[in-house]
Amino acid sequence: MKHESRYSVHPADAKKYDTQQLREQFLIEKIFEDEEICLTYSHEDRYITGGAKPVYNTLELQPIDPLKADYFLERRELGIVNVGGKGIVMADGDTYTLDFKEALYLGRGVKNVTFKSIDSSAPAAFYLNSTPAHKTFPTKKVTSEEAERVELGSPETSNHRIINKLLVNSVVDTCQLQMGMTELKSGSVWNTMPGHVHDRRMEVYFYFELPEDQAICHFMGQKEESRHIWMHNHQAVISPVWSMHSGAGTSSYTFIWGMAGENLDYDDMDKIAITDLR
Ligand SMILES: O=C(O)C(=O)C[C@H](O)C(=O)CO
Ligand SMILES: [Zn+2]
């Protein structure tokens, strides 16, 4: 297992960052590596973002050193979304088969978690988000059909998209983790526009289904001090509570959002008028 840590950043510091500093603090360039579990521990709400990509081997989720725990989920909950070929997650002896875009919630206290692919020529790619948890909630698999779906935007404003709420409180009980997947309609390129912030929750975006020769310009920062980070397929970006989080792609794409913090109210957002952006 590989891991790295990121500290929290004050917006007054972030506004002075150059491109390289912005990328070092907020961008997670490598989520997936063959036969590895790669994790990034952010001190923004102690959110862990990462990926497990088993090809031939079975990978075991182990407690990384910053947790000082006997096992990974001793004080945490975990959300998993498979963005690769069909794969299997084993949780304390129970088997969960996850197809492309299917999600699994594992609650606090699950001791043994392993990941494997069913077909090494189309390996699974398990995207992982984890947050501290005060209570145990049952494990639950969530398919796209079980997600709460919301249609937003329009072709005229290039932001026509479907929000699939996967691990949210209307679908599964969690302590603080919320995850979902937003799919852009063909021809639309803007996500989360008009934008928003939520002072009560931080958020991480993970982009996928983006052609390898295309890119996303992800916008962050306070609304009067916006900055951009160019991103590629299978990369993630950390959004502190003070930061807008919105992107425009050079093609359509899909992304997974994950959040944690003070509440589980998806709609608790302070909306930003497009004309107020600077
Ligand atoms: O396209 C969108 O709009 C989103 O997907 C918004 C995210 O769900 C979000 O930022 C939730 O806070
Ligand atoms: Zn948000």
Q: How is the largest sheet built, in terms of strand order?
A: 1-3-4-11-6-9-12
Question: What is the overall silhouette?
Answer: globular
Q: Output the number of helix runs.
A: 2
- Give the fraction of residues assigned to helices: under 10%
Q: What is the oligomer described by this structure?
A: single chain
Number of strands: 24
Distance between the termini: 41 Å
Supply Rg: 18 Å
Instruction: Indicate the mean pLDDT.
Output: 98
State the name of the first-level CATH class: Mainly Beta
SS content category: mainly beta
- The CATH homologous superfamily is called Jelly Rolls
Explained architecture:
- Catalyzes the isomerization of 5-dehydro-4-deoxy-D-glucuronate to 3-deoxy-D-glycero-2,5-hexodiulosonate.
- The protein has 278 residues and is mainly beta.
- The protein has a single domain, classed as Jelly Rolls, CATH 2.60.120.
- It is 4% helix and 42% strand.
- It has two helices and 24 strands.
- Strands 1-3-4-11-6-9-12 form a seven-stranded mixed β-sheet, with no helix packed on it. Strands 2-21-18-23-15-14-13 form a seven-stranded antiparallel β-sheet.
- Strand 13 and strand 14 form a beta hairpin.
- The mean pLDDT is 98.
- The ligand O=C(O)C(=O)C[C@H](O)C(=O)CO binds next to strand 14, strand 15 and strand 23.
- Zinc ion (ZN) binds next to loops.
Set out the fold topology:
Blueprint: E1 2-6, H1 11-14, H2 19-26, E2 27-28, E3 36-42, E4 48-53, E5 59-60, E6 76-82, E7 87-91, E8 94-98, E9 103-106, E10 113-117, E11 126-132, E12 140-142, E13 148-152, E14 161-167, E15 178-184, E16 190-191, E17 196-197, E18 201-208, E19 216-220, E20 227-231, E21 235-239, E22 246-249, E23 254-261, E24 270-271
Parallel strand pairs: 1-3
Antiparallel strand pairs: 2-21, 3-4, 4-11, 5-10, 6-9, 6-11, 7-8, 7-10, 9-12, 13-14, 14-15, 15-23, 16-22, 17-24, 18-21, 18-23, 19-20, 19-22
